[in-house]
Structures are given as C-alpha cells and as structure tokens.
Amino acid sequence: MNIHIVVEGVKGAAKVYEIWVPLVNPRLTYVSHISDIVNDNFSIVGGGGYPQYLEIIDAAIDDVNNYRNIQRLVIGVDSEEFSYQEKYREIEDHISSLPCLAEIRIVVQHFCLETWALGNEVIVKTHPNSDVLRKYVNFFNVRVEDPELLPGYSEEELNRAQFAAKYLKYALNDKYKELTYSKSNPTALLHHKYFGRVKQRLQNTGHISSFAHFLGAFV
Amino acid sequence: MKIISYESDAGPNDLHFSKIYFSQLNLIVGDSGSGKTRLLNTIFNSGVMVVQRGKLFLGSWDITLEHQNQLYRWVIQTGGEKEDEKVQSEKIVKLKENGKEEVLVLRTPNTFIFAGKELPRLGPKESSITLLQEEDLIKPLYLGFLSIMRRSFFGPDLELAAALESVPQKFLKKIQKSKNKDDLFSFGLSLNARLYMLSQYFKDTYDRICKEFINVFPFVSNYDVLNAEDFGLHLPGIVPVFAVKERHMGETWIPLDQLSSGMKKVLLILTDIFTMPENGGVYLLDEYENSLGINAINFFPSILFESGTKSQFIITSHHPYIIGNIPVKSWIVLHRKGKEVLVKQGAEIEERYSKSKQKAFVQLINDPFYTEGIE
Question: What is the ipTM of this complex?
Fold first, then answer.
C-alpha cells in the first residue's frame, strides 16, 4: 500500500509523521517526494504553518489522481479551538466536491500534536523541580487526566493548544536536561519508546482517543 | 560583468562552497545558517581583493566570469596569517569560443608569468588583476570586478545610504563632461546625492525610479530633490535632500531620513537597480525583505523582470512571496554539512518539482535538502 500524507503544521509535524508512521506499520518506508513512491511507500507534504492548507489538500488530491499508484490519502490537522467533530466536518466538507481516486482518511489531532505527546506519562515528573511545571500539574495533571481535556490557561492568556505546547516543553526540560521541544524541533518525540508510551496511554486508559485515528490510518 | 560559475574555500575554519552556476537572476535559499550571507560575502570579498589595493582575504576562489562578451577564469589561492595574507598561486585564463584557453597570468610564490613573459617579482599582497589593471589584457577583468555592488541591511547600511552628503565638485564636473551614468555608479555616493545627480543629468532614469517608488507607495503625492537649506540645515556646498509629500499630510516636505525604513529601502534598491552599469554589473542583495511590509516586499520580483537591466542579481530570501514569484530555475538551494556547503541548482529542482501540483514553495519547505539544511 502506498500513502500520501498532508500535514498542516511547521516542519516538526511532518518529521513526527515520518518517524511514527513506520512504527505503526513497519512495511511502510518514507520517501521525500510523491514522485518517488513505488511500493509500500509514504510521502508527506506539510503546509509549513502558512495559511494555505486547503490549497495544499487540493493539490495533494490532484497529485494522487495523477499518480494512480497511491491507495490512501491521509490528512492530518489540528482541531485547536474547534471540537473534534467540527474540524473533521470542515475538512470533510472541503473535500466532498473533489473526486479522489484514493481512499481519504482524516486524522484530527485533537486538539494538537502536543496533546498526544502529553499522553506520555513518563515525561511528567511526579514531583517537578520547575515551579512553573508544578503550577501546571496542580492546575491540570496530564498524568492522571485525559490530555485532550486540557483547558486553556487564562493566567498566562494561553489557549489550550498554546498551553499544551508550553506544558510539553516544560515537562521535557524538567525531566531531561538535554532534551527540549519546539514545533520546528520535535526530536524528543521521535524516539520509538516515546511513540510506544503514547500508544500505551491510549490503549490502557482510552485517553487521547483521537490518536486512535492516527493508528488506524496507516494499517 | 556576469559570474558564470563560482567556488570558494575560506580556509579550515570557514565554509567551502562547492561549485555554483549562476544565471542572470539567482535566488539563494536555504535554512538560517546554511551559508547564504557568507556566500554573498565571499563573492563580494573576491571583488574587494581586486579593486582595493593591498587587501586580500584568506582562502581560495575559482571564478568563471563574462565581461564584454569575453569569458575568463580566475583562480587564486592566498595564504599566510590574517591581516598579512599573501598570494600563493594565481591563474587567469581567457576562455575562447573553440574551447581553447589562453593563459594570461600564471603565478606561484617564485614566478610571475604574464602573457607568456616572466615578470620581475611583484608584491605578493595584491592580486595580479590589481597589479596589472592598466594592461589591456587585464583591464576588462578589473573593470568587471568594479561593477559588483552588495547591499545588506544588518548593520547601519540603510542609515548611511540615506545620510546627507555634500556633492563633490570633481564628481559634478566629471558627470557634466562625460554624461555617462556609469560614472555615477563608480562614485559610490549616498542616495540623496545620487538622486540629485540623476534629477540633474539623467532625468529619464530619475523619473523612472520615482514612478516605480510611487507605484509601491501610492500615498506619495509629490517628490523633489531639495537642498539642506530648505530644512534649516546650513551646510557648505550642494547638500541635496530627496523629499516627498504624502496625501492628506498637507504641504509638508518629508526628507528622506524621516521616511520609514521600508520606504528608504525600496528607494535605495530602485536607485541601485536603475544605476547599475549599462553593460551590466553584479548586484548582491541579502534578505532585503527584513522589516518590510507586504506592499514593500511585493515590488521586487516584478522590478527584476521589468527593469530591462543587463545586470546579474544574486539575492537571498526567506520570504514565501519572493521565493514563490521567482522561477524555480533561478533558485539555488544551499545545504550545509559542517563546513561544506552543498548546492542544488534550480534546473535540477525544477525537474523534480514539476512532478507535483503542489506550489514550488510548498515543495521547497518539504524538501529535506532545504528543511534539514544544516547537518
């Protein structure tokens, strides 16, 4: 099976998909351009955070139709301030008028990639050293509660997606001296053990339920 | 002058640029830190080594260039200590249409052969183009290197360019006599002084620059070159001040130094482009879009295509609009591996990117050669 993936975010999101997809389905091998797809390959095109995401989806559908050797198009998108259903419907409505020869799977990262990453319980210390992180854990403990239910943090005027990104960064900095996280440098998330912990969280607790759609999109 | 190909190595602690082929319009793209600014600097430094007596930089350069329809290859290696650099070897070759080479200069630490004849020992602290600039065989090369101009806006360049300056009498006399716009390029005057000279002696060019300026900033209702006296500054000589009036701002003249940095920058670039030497020069421009609003950013690609200049442009940019509006074949993508800077030429990229309907800019920001630009 060949898969083409469209992700919305800056280059970090594409990097996470590049590493995590073969962890879901080891038969799939990454290629850096859609034209390189041959057999059991996947390619990724990211919007780089620029506001033309829907145009990129349109062009991806054109590409899939032209190449004809791609069986699935996966569209990965953050729901951010929308509900899972609202975001799913937005993409579904957009593509409904666009005939596509491949099956389309919409993966809504509810509400962002960092929400899934916060599903790794190990990265948040039980007793954080950082005052800021301690405050965050007291406010909402992602080790116990479902990260998808993380609210915004009004004290710092952060919406929930901004809060998740900051929470993740502080947790990683607190736990590992040499690791940090940014949207453009998600190195910490790329280790297979990290992916394993996120998957385990979903399987053991049912938390980060939108991650199940990611797992399902590549098998 | 036009640079056809370029390779340089600035020593063990600096970057090595593998061979780059340039065309008339060249857009250098790459991650921050991939070597774009350094590339422009090393190209500019090669020119400085020619036109500035006694000034060398450490490293090696291999440049093929065209000037007045003649191809040359200049290969120079310098060594020694910083601030005490010496030429170690140098070769200048005239490349003929039949593929043959005519060696003009061959130089080692112990020998100096020019046009087949051995010359007495000449100072090792100057390139042979500098030393032999008056010789008919070498003069075209020297003049070619004189036509390189670099603009970067990291330091005080913009403020310096917009500074007040008394127009030197000798320049005035020269231009009155020669009526040659190329002289204006070689004077290296500030923007105020250049616009004054243009308004006096090259009215068509002056009007073209101002018209293009108003196209970018339509709220400018009038423009003129006034004198410092008009602004209460009593300075000796002719001290011109370019000034504009803006709609809904009454009759007040706003002098150049009080315009926004975006307006100054646009005016400076327009003036540079329209005063490049008639037979073409090399214009190096580093990330001009920094701190500019979208209206000031957008003017540049169309000016490049419409200016009709013979000059060569080597520019760097991170901006999607600039990158998206310059043909892929004109891109040069840099990728740095330690001190090695690897290059992908536009033609190679164009072929690959044509296989997808995604916009070229979208494909660029997904290309590992670009996104993982530094290893």
Answer: 0.88
